[in-house]
Amino acid sequence: MRLPQRQLAVLEAASATDERTIDEMATATGLKPETVVGAAFDLRDEGLLSLAERTVDTLDLTDEGRRYVDGGLPETRLYRAGLALDADESAVSMGEVIGEAGLEGPEVDIALSNFARKGLGSIDSGELRVDPDVDPDADPEAAALAALVEGDDPAADEAVLDQLDSRGLVDRAESVTRSATLTEDGVDALMTGVEATETVSELTPELLASGEWRDVEFSEYNVEADAPTARGGRKHVLRRTADRVKDVLVGMGFQEMEGPHADSDFWINDCLFMPQDHPARTHWDRFALDVDPMDRIPDELIARVEATHRDGWGVDGDGYHSPWSEEFAREVALRGHTTSLSMRYLSGIAGAELEPPQRYFSVEKVYRNDTLDPTHLLEFFQIEGWVMAEDLSVRDLMGTFEEFYRQFGITDIRFKPHYNPYTEPSFELFGEHPETGEEIEIGNSGVFREEVTGPLGVDCDVMAWGLALERLAMLTTGAEDIRDLHGTLADIDFLRNAEVSY
Ligand SMILES: N[C@@H](Cc1ccccc1)C(=O)O
């Protein structure tokens, strides 16, 4: 019998009585493990070897995990600092607790989100309270980390290990070990004597010129051989979703809007008939900027918006009858929605043509002082849009959404009546999460009131919306936590592997 050199070497390294692993045979033959695997597969196909496969889980602490074994988990440090400041008795300012805990940089986010996830207390309006009934020494994640550092079995639930893995505190890997034993045919072959054939893995000009190619044996491609995973760069899931959104909207006849992230309250709120004492306009919710007030706002527009806030628009209108401050309107903050762009475009100052019909959109970042949780980020992307035309109805709005979401394979959106100071009627949109089955809010919409369009000089209907890009991505990728998508806690494995399903 003749076998290629490397197969013969592997055959000779195998035993009929002991299982030999690929690594053992690689050491014995001096071949690379991947070469041994390839040869072993071929020998198995010839019936000379039998191969057994075993999958083993390995679990290693990452540097971050190791740090927490010594210093404590950030959320536990936050909890203990809270206790030290009597936050079990009454709420304490978050800044103070963070300072007491000595948390810095990304650890602050990590502490806050895990504090909330584990129910160690509550965070509301910038203040923190700790739950006195929690036992900070009984944390299963901390216990598993401590066991691992000692080299012990963490003896933890699968859910705890998954959590440590998604926090990047452990490296979890599955490795496959293959081992071989000689079959009876293999033993027979060795006893009767096997000769080596020369195999050639590359067809060279010399082989061709000499005609030797006729006599040599070519090694085969082994598509099952283990190979390292090659990771090239790839576009972020969210960017791919945003690009797709733009394509879809452009396909539906929309043009793109652009404008400032930091804008005056005038464009962000006043144009939208949002009363100046609306809760969303307090310092809790907005990120105010300490910069000069915005001066380039048309005077006539300011006058019309002010009059509308005071007395309403049109003969039957009614305003808020409360003081309106031009100074406040000119203050600059990070926009909490991109409806500020819609206001700029509808007013005509952005240079857009105002004759109906018009369709505009943007996919841009907005900023809100929300509490981080699985469906909320402090910075996220809104898909803003509006259509200006004569005689629009709610049916047009619903039809637009149905068509838009259908492009992403989402055909079961639901509508619920809602209230916005600037639209009437208004409704929110919901979609069903493909993994959890939960209904999640994916957008807010309505037809702008005359109090909004009137002062801007628009005298036909305008229907408009703000949809959440991250929530759309949650529906299309199945991500269950918005923080896996972007931000300091993003899940790198998810970002590497997520497919955008359309
Ligand atoms: N600005 C709203 C979305 C919206 C835009 C335009 C009209 C109606 C609703 C939000 O952020 O939730």
From TrEMBL:
State the name under which the record lists this protein: Phenylalanine--tRNA ligase alpha subunit
* GO function terms (MF aspect): ATP binding; magnesium ion binding; phenylalanine-tRNA ligase activity
How the cofactor is bound: the record states:
Binds 2 magnesium ions per tetramer.
| Organism domain of life | Archaea
Residues the entry annotates as binding L-phenylalanine: 339, 382-384, 422, 448
Its lineage opens with: Archaea, Methanobacteriati, Methanobacteriota, Stenosarchaea group, Halobacteria
Residues crossing the lipid bilayer are none
**GO biological process terms on file:** phenylalanyl-tRNA aminoacylation
Coiled-coil segments, which residues?
Answer: none
Q: State the compartments where it is located.
A: Cytoplasm
Q: Which residue ranges does the record assign to the Aminoacyl-transfer RNA synthetases class-II family profile domain? A: 245-490
Q: Which cofactor does it need?
A: Mg(2+)
Annotated family: Belongs to the class-II aminoacyl-tRNA synthetase family. Phe-tRNA synthetase alpha subunit type 2 subfamily.
The catalysed reaction is: tRNA(Phe) + L-phenylalanine + ATP = L-phenylalanyl-tRNA(Phe) + AMP + diphosphate + H(+)
What keywords appear on the UniProt entry? Aminoacyl-tRNA synthetase, ATP-binding, Cytoplasm, Ligase, Magnesium, Metal-binding, Nucleotide-binding, Protein biosynthesis
This entry's Enzyme Commission designation comes to: 6.1.1.20
Residues bound to Mg(2+) are 424
Whom does it interact with, and what assembly results? Tetramer of two alpha and two beta subunits.
| Family matches, as CDD domains | PheRS_alpha_core
PANTHER family given in the database record? PHENYLALANINE--TRNA LIGASE ALPHA SUBUNIT, PHENYLALANYL-TRNA SYNTHETASE
